[in-house]
Amino acid sequence: xxxxxxxxxFGLDNxxxxxxxxxxxxxxxxxxxxxxxxxxxxxxxxxxGTYNPKQKLPLVPCSDGAGEVLAVGPGVHRFxxxxxxxxIFSQTWLAGPPSGAARKGTLGGPLDGMLxxxxxxxxxxxxxxxxHLSFEEGACLxxxxxxxxxxxxxxxxxxxxxxxxxxxxxxxxxxxxxFAQMAGARAIxxxxxxxxxxxxxxxxxxxxIHYAKEPEWDRRVMELTSGEGVDHVVEVGGGGTFExxxxxxxxxxxxxxxxxxxxxxTEFAVTSILMKSVHLRGLFVGSRALFEEMNRAVGEHRxxxxxxxxxxxxxxxxxxxxxxxxxxxxxxxVAVGR
Length: 338
What we know:
By secondary structure, the chain is an alpha/beta fold. The chain has eleven helices and 15 strands. The longest helix is centred in the C-terminal third of the chain and has 14 residues, at about 290-300.
């Protein structure tokens, strides 16, 4: 089989196509013919070596993939050949709160990821795809979709009439916008692109803010919410946006910390958390049980992930370069197939 590997050192120029032996499933394992992968910012950081500089190489990147069951090993009862499936981000996190073991069982580092034609995974590390989704759409669910779902419904479920602030228009942010629409909530979306804001509006955004034109965008959020602030912030920016996110949330509201697109470090007044009784929560995607819950909702509402562009398998490095430029809206996908 063919697989993309981060070969002997990090960097996009070291993401190379390699030949590996075809794997076969053992007891409790499933052989998946990977049909599509989607990219997350974590995958780019992994390839560049900024996510875990101590990661052992070679490594197949990409935590998110969907495909078809080709064969099953002895004792498998959850799947059969022909089933359409997606891998879960942490192969060892089936339910309950996260743990140290969950961090050690993640695809795309430290475990080989899904940017390969064939993958053998535990039957426990897979979920069925919603029937209405293509493989390309289904490959968007494991990280971006589940992270957004966990943020909005994992602990304090979003309610109809609530207002959320969504930073940017990447994968997690657009899923959050779609889930807010599904729940009858209002979403305020920020971007530095008028075109992307128009697309967010077309998807149902209640309001939009061009943060390059309004750098103190938290003030605009307060104006839009009559001085109250939003119920929930989907915080993907990190160091460059965190303080303003705290200013934009209402008293008793929630901030889900998800990404570090604008840096990993910042300084802020802790009193802004204390005085507003902010619920601050860091997210590590989610469990298989939460994934299955999300899929039921996705299937019931026939929600379609927003796919910006699909690259052929041989052009996977170009997909990473597009993510590095930040020119995408929604998800970037690599078609794998065989």
